[in-house]
């Protein structure tokens, strides 16, 4: 198969967010060159001891989910808790937030972080089964291509990632398929080869999965996934982070981490995630 031309998916930070959004809509994802290049070394340093201490595979899961998570893949969450660099400089990156605002326009007034997850695919790992991330929300997934976007994921390369290391396999355009029950053939995928610091932001409706690692090196990437603020996220950030750590962050970061209420403004509706019918952050400030 001819190699997929990644340049059609690629934007640079000097291009307008509208361009990134246009690519996202057409292909289901957009590769943002050098999105986090300035921060990856610091992030890796902060994460290193935690990744080293983690063992591959997730023991407590049912068998099919053990395959999904990867038996030779290390998964580590709690990135905003572990990494100052992440919570202060990466989580609310203006370009990424610009894209997220476009993607979720008219779907929700505020977005939550769905998960921040290190996915280190170790040598010898087989390919993950292909899936859509919206499968976490089956009722939405069953609505097919016309469903509202409820989750969008940015895969960030924490190292240069090549096909043999297990680059994510992506089926471009699969967010627009008429039949969401159709299985994708491996030949329909392309390997998402990235340079350290690149980010690939893609729709929850796009078919993808981690590739097999047939190299001798671990493949280190991070998922920064977002979801509509009215939907339960994968990761329970406010259950393990403390307000003291979050209160100095931007309002956007606080919102992403679940430390602010959700107020409907663009859509009709009330407020969610409140205390005594009031803004959660006000309560937290006074509850200290
Ligand atoms: O690690 C990857 O390349 C993709 C992982 C993934 O898609 C997932 O776990 O949902
Ligand atoms: Fe996925």
What keywords describe this structure?
288 residues; 12 strands; binds 2-oxoglutaric acid; 3-stranded antiparallel beta sheet; 7-stranded mixed beta sheet; 11 helices; Jelly Rolls; binds fe (ii) ion; single chain; 27% helix; globular; alpha+beta
List the helices and strands and how they pair.
Blueprint lengths: L9 E2 L5 H11 L1 E4 L7 H14 L9 H7 L3 E4 L2 H4 L1 H7 L3 H10 L7 E11 L16 H4 L9 E7 L11 E2 L19 E2 L7 E5 L4 E2 L9 E10 L8 H4 L2 H4 L4 H6 L5 E2 L7 E2 L7 H8 L1
Helix pairs in contact: 1-6
The structure holds 2-oxoglutaric acid and fe (ii) ion.
- What's the CATH class, please? Mainly Beta
CATH superfamily caption? q2cbj1_9rhob like domain
Rg computed from alpha carbons, rounded to a whole number of angstroms:
18 Å
Number of domains: 1
Instruction: Provide the list of bound ligands, each named once.
Output: 2-oxoglutaric acid, fe (ii) ion
> Average pLDDT across residues?
96
SSE class: alpha+beta
Q: Tell me about the largest β-sheet.
A: 7 strands, mixed
- The general outline is globular
Proportion in β-strands: 15-25%
> Stretches where pLDDT falls below 50 for ≥5 residues?
none
